[in-house]
Amino acid sequence: MLRIRGPWFHGARCCFREWGCPPLASSSQSLIPHSFISLSSNPKYAELHKGLHGRICTAMLLPAAKVLDLRIKSPDSFLLYKKVKSTRLGAKYHGLASYAKWHEACRAGSILRFVFRSEKDHPELFVRQEIIRCSANDREVSEAVLYTHNFTREWIEAVIGPAKEMGYNAVVCNELEKTLSSIASTQLFVFNPECLSPPNWVNPLEPGLLAEFQ
């Protein structure tokens, strides 16, 4: 099992010295900002957020941080499950019928990708997904992609956010990005910047520097 302390990887479009205000992926894309700092055990996942000219940094989670690890069954993981299930989106998520299914989804990495039961549950999301698959209009597709990205962010907030109200500084959960790998990556979501060591920016010109972590 991954050591929770790290190292963890974070991709950004520009460098910064402190974790207090890490930049958004792109201010021009109108992405909904997260209430946490997202880091990954896999540098390839961090690559997704740095853009063409960004950088990747590493950080360690400080020992004093209170962490809810959703890969492990616990009373607080069960409480979080109940909280998520009671939300507007959680009530419609396919796969939250039981705590066992929730735990399985957290371990498999599928919990952070919204799966609705039928088209009528989310007709707008269904329409936008169809546009992405079928439309030849670049602007229409771009708007649909932005919509689905923001929807995914809203869902991740619904899953992770309640842990902050429960007194946690961070959450650990697996995430599966099928475009990158068939194996889920472990993600760290940090609510309190002071729980992270300062960002250590990796020099992308040094061959093999990230290879040892992959």
Tell me the total number of β-strands.
Answer: 7
The tally of helices reads 6
Class by alpha and beta content: alpha+beta
Gyration radius, rounded: 18 Å
Main sheet properties: 4 strands, mixed
Give the DSSP E fraction (strand runs of 2 or more residues).
5-15%
Low-confidence stretches: none
| Secondary structure: helix percent | 25-40%
Strand order of the largest sheet: 2-6-5-4
- Shape category: globular
SSE order: EEHEEHHHHHEEE
User: How far apart are the first and last residues' alpha carbons, in Å?
Assistant: 15 Å
Overall number of structural domains? 1
Mean pLDDT: 85
Reconstruct the topology from this structure.
Elements: E1 8-12, E2 37-40, H1 43-47, E3 55-59, E4 67-69, H2 75-85, H3 99-108, H4 123-134, H5 138-160, H6 162-165, E5 170-175, E6 185-190, E7 200-201
Parallel strand pairs: 4-5
Antiparallel strand pairs: 1-3, 2-6, 3-7, 5-6
Helix pairs in contact: 4-5
Description:
- There is one protein chain.
- By secondary structure, the protein is of the alpha+beta class.
- The protein has one domain.
- It contains six helices and seven strands, in the order ββαββαααααβββ.
- The strands form two sheets. The protein has a four-stranded mixed sheet. Strands 1-3-7 form a three-stranded antiparallel sheet.
- Helix 4 (about 125-135) crosses helix 5 (about 140-160).
- The longest helix has 23 residues, at about 140-160.
- It is globular, with a radius of gyration of 18 Å.
- The mean pLDDT is about 85.
